[in-house]
Write a structure and sequence with these properties.
400 residues; alpha/beta; Rossmann fold; eight-stranded mixed beta sheet; five-stranded parallel beta sheet; 14 helices; 21 strands; 34% helix; globular
């Protein structure tokens, strides 16, 4: 799938640099050529000789290479690739990218390029969760830099959590998706995706919500985009930013989400990954509710929210060819999801167990069962990005 594609691979200085060796091998066996760039720190973990041997190409290391710079080598190198990949993307490299620094070959290439950039972050969990890194991530996303990972897991430092670099095959899949958008199996097709929670107001400062981060819906929108789809992404107030390259409609409540979904139709497929509140407060106060000293809490009357999945699934005209719902359950997952599919009238249900012990709601991994007319198929637990790519591929097959 990558035959003839040119990848500029920048290898940052972290223990995850060893994965770059396998990444190069995987890219080359798919037909891509790889131009490797090593930072000085990366040379502490992998050798230029091993990188060059696997890439079958010279390793670029020095900004002030007289031969190369006589030909404006760093400019040419940064613009001749089909994709620039940074793996591992360390906290330092991400900070340089976000700040526009250019004090070595890697950062200069990243500043001089007009080619799409994909990063695979890798760092200690505390570094990943630090406010400075979060700011840099947001800046890079706003600049159009794409990312894959990081994953949760054990780290070389002995800690556990998010910060492990995505596995080489995950990075390859992301690269294939980015480079094959124009000719992908969903090219020219419109797909609608909902994501995140909804916030149902109690008064101007309080609301009813749930623990959804929006990570799975965001990953799915990105995966469908990478297969060439024109994606409309209707999102509640999620904690993860929406993906680049999609049309974003931001909403707060279930009623607003339904209106945005209806406005986005027609679509060939609709995937309802949002965790929509079933109920809203019918008598939401216009002013902040205050304690009156009686010790008696205010009486809240509830009303049922519109059922977005059922509404779209049961459209008489304009129904998408494929309607996919999600079922987040805490018990009897398959039984509840099977009943939901029949009751709502959708084509597929993606069911998962969101019991607190699973860590799935708000986490970086998911374990799903896909229920269709043909039966139930249970997938192993994997990163939400991987779930998204697998489900996007199935959607592409169904629409072919």
């Amino acid at each position: 799938m990558l035959a003839g594609k040119r990848i500029l691979l920048i290898i940052g200085g972290g223990i995850a640099a060893y994965k770059a060796l396998d990444l190069i091998r995987r890219l080359r066996e798919r037909g891509a050529s790889v131009s490797p760039v090593l930072t000085r720190a990366a040379e502490e973990f992998v050798t230029p000789l091993s990188i060059a041997a696997l890439a079958g190409a010279n390793v670029h290391r020095d900004l002030f290479d007289l031969t190369a710079e006589a030909e404006m080598g760093h400019i040419q190198l940064s613009r001749s690739a089909d994709l620039v990949v940074v793996a591992p993307a360390t906290a330092d490299l991400m900070a340089k990218m976000a700040g526009g620094l250019a004090n070595d070959l890697a950062s200069t290439l990243l500043l001089a390029t007009d080619t799409q950039v994909l990063i695979a972050p890798a760092m200690n969990v505390r570094m990943w969760q630090h406010a400075a890194t979060a700011r840099n991530r947001a800046v890079l996303a706003g600049d159009g830099v794409l990312s894959v990972g990081p994953n949760d897991g054990d780290m070389a430092c002995g800690e556990y959590g998010p910060g492990r670099m995505a596995e080489p095959l995950e990075i390859v899949a992301a690269i294939e998706g980015i480079l094959n958008r124009a000719t992908g199996p969903l090219a020219g097709r419109h797909v609608l995706v909902t994501s995140g929670p909804t916030h149902e107001p109690i008064d101007p400062v309080r609301y009813i919500a749930n623990r959804s981060s929006g990570a799975q819906g965001t990953a799915l929108a990105a995966a469908l985009r990478d297969l060439g789809a024109r994606v409309t992404f209707v999102t509640g107030p999620a904690t993860v930013p929406p993906p680049q390259g999609v049309t974003v409609a931001r909403v707060e409540t279930a009623a607003q989400m339904l209106a945005a979904v209806e406005a986005a139709l027609p679509a060939e497929a609709a995937v309802f990954a949002a965790a929509v509140a079933d109920w809203r407060v019918a008598n939401a106060a216009e002013r902040k509710m205050k304690k009156d000293g009686s010790g008696t809490p205010p009486a809240l009357a509830f009303a049922e929210n519109p059922d977005i999945l059922a509404t779209i699934s049961q459209l008489a005209t304009g129904r998408p060819r494929l309607v996919v719902g999600f079922a987040a359950e805490t018990d009897d997952v398959i039984a509840h999801a099977t009943a939901k599919r029949a009751r709502k009238g959708c084509d597929w249900i993606v069911a998962n167990d969101v019991s607190p012990a699973t860590g799935i709601m708000g986490g970086s991994e998911n374990a799903v069962t896909v229920l269709t007319e043909a039966g139930a198929e249970t997938w192993p637990r994997m990163a939400k990005d991987a779930v998204a790519r697998k489900l996007a591929a199935r959607i592409a097959e169904a629409l072919a």
